[in-house]
Design goal:
- Helices cover 44% and strands 20% of the residues.
- It has ten helices and seven strands.
- By secondary structure, it is α/β, with parallel strands linked by helices.
- The protein is globular and about 55 Å long.
- The chain starts with 10 loop residues before the first helix and ends in a 5-residue tail after the last strand.
- Helix 4 links the parallel strand 2 and strand 3.
- Helix 5 packs across helix 7 and helix 9 crosses helix 10.
Length: 263
């Protein structure tokens, strides 16, 4: 794509998210959550696609600790891809890691290109879960796995007023869907062994820890670097998010599905 006009995550937001969740991460749990949703899948010598690679933390972790042959991380935001490239160079992982800025839409890869497709909390930005599931199935090798985490909706129709207030406060391009929609989309695409593991209970508690960090241990440094108004706005977002989590409207979830060896 051309020098990207798509940029939802500016430098201030990226700095804040890394301060909370660790270098290279834009969503909760860091490497521990990656290891949880990949648990039991052997990545040794495998080719991996990371959809919505963000700041590249997932991909660096796979290269350093899961003995992958290669990881291609894709995102629609050129600024994020540049940060991923910097991370790979910093840790001398460029032989295993490749990052590409892509256009929104079908995945630009041939059938059976990857052993594993992963994504950490990025599919929330993709509207058509059915089309994406079919595309992931297409680019996976027979016997390959889709393993990811994402933000799911705890409702089938309309969000509560409090959930809508959280979505509005975030100001990001969210396209949440329920666990039912994800399961149906993966099954319709041809996947088997579909697993959906709700992580709401964990993040209800973790989000409170993060809010206290923003208002406490991290506040002075972040306010100095990013500005008091920006920090206060982010704390307000966390307050609204916690309400949505407590209502069960926002549900962090692990997803897994297997492409059969034969049709």
């Amino acid at each position: 794509m051309s020098e990207a006009t798509i940029q939802e995550y500016d430098e201030n937001l990226m700095a804040l998210l890394e301060a909370i969740w660790g270098e290279g991460f834009m969503s909760p749990g860091g490497t521990a959550e990656v290891d949880r949703y990949l648990d039991g899948i052997d990545l040794s010598g495998k080719s991996v696609l990371d959809i919505g690679c963000g700041l590249g933390g997932v991909d660096l972790h796979l290269a350093q600790h899961h003995d992958v042959a290669r990881v291609i991380g894709i995102d629609i935001d050129q600024a994020l891809i540049q940060r991923c490239d910097q991370l790979a160079r910093k840790y001398q992982a460029t032989k295993q890691l490749e990052f590409r800025c892509v256009e929104p839409g079908p995945l630009p890869f041939k059938p059976a290109s990857f052993d594993i497709v992963t994504s950490k909390d990025s599919i929330i930005h993709i509207t058509d879960k059915q089309a994406l599931s079919q595309d992931i199935f297409r680019i996976l090798e027979p016997g390959g796995w889709f393993a990811a985490s994402d933000w799911l909706a705890g409702y089938e129709d309309q969000p509560s007023a409090e959930m809508q207030a959280y979505i509005d406060a975030e100001g990001l391009d969210f396209n949440l869907a329920s666990a039912t929609i994800y399961a149906e989309a993966l099954q319709a695409a041809g996947f088997v062994d579909i697993g959906i593991v709700d992580r709401n209970d964990w993040y209800q508690q973790q989000a409170r820890v993060e809010r206290e960090q923003l208002a406490g241990a991290l506040s002075e440094g972040l306010a100095s670097k990013l500005g008091t108004d920006f920090l206060e706005h982010q704390i307000d977002i966390w307050n609204k998010m916690i309400i949505a989590l407590d209502q069960g409207q926002l549900r962090p979830t692990h997803l897994r599905a297997h492409k059969p060896l034969s049709p």
